[in-house]
Design a protein that fits this description.
Layout: H1 2-24, E1 37-39, E2 46-48, H2 54-75, H3 85-103, H4 119-144
Antiparallel strand pairs: 1-2
Helix pairs in contact: 1-2, 1-4, 2-3, 3-4
Length: 145
């Protein structure tokens, strides 16, 4: 069961990584739902909270791919299996970061965000934050089972 869970995790992390590569190379599909939006001062209109830089987006894609590789190392899928405690703790730390992402920063992301009436906020509430919880739990299971 852990191996099947690991395969699922690797597939999800790799797919999300590929989407970030697409954005880093200038793709615009789903970008409105990918960046938090904040209200314009004194108005009802929304604008992106930040302008994602291509190299930072590529860095995020790389980090997601590294997470997928760590899971592969842990279970021995495509790579030799590593049973070292340090790997367990690194994967656990990543899981904790995902849980923290799901909880949020109290303003723009997570279950307890303040800005709730944008396309990003709706996607974050119903897809991104729950996915972070599920991925975090999956990573803990792979790390310690």
């Amino acid at each position: 069961m852990t191996f099947a869970l690991a395969q699922w995790l690797v597939t999800i992390f790799a797919a999300i990584s590929l989407v970030h590569v697409y954005w880093a190379l200038g793709g615009e599909w789903a970008t409105v739902a990918a960046v938090p939006q904040v209200p314009v001062e004194g108005g009802v209109q929304l604008h992106p909270a930040f302008e994602p830089q291509g190299w930072i987006t590529l860095l995020v894609a790389t980090a997601l791919l590294v997470i997928a590789l760590l899971v592969c190392l842990r279970v021995g899928w495509w790579l030799p299996q590593v049973q070292h405690r340090a790997l367990q703790w690194v994967i656990s730390a990543i899981a904790i970061l995902l849980f923290a992402r799901a909880i949020g920063d109290s303003e723009l992301v997570g279950f307890f965000k303040e800005v709730k009436d944008s396309r990003f906020a709706r996607w974050d509430t119903w897809v991104y934050s729950p996915l972070c919880v599920v991925l975090g739990a999956g990573l803990l299971a792979v790390a310690w089972v």
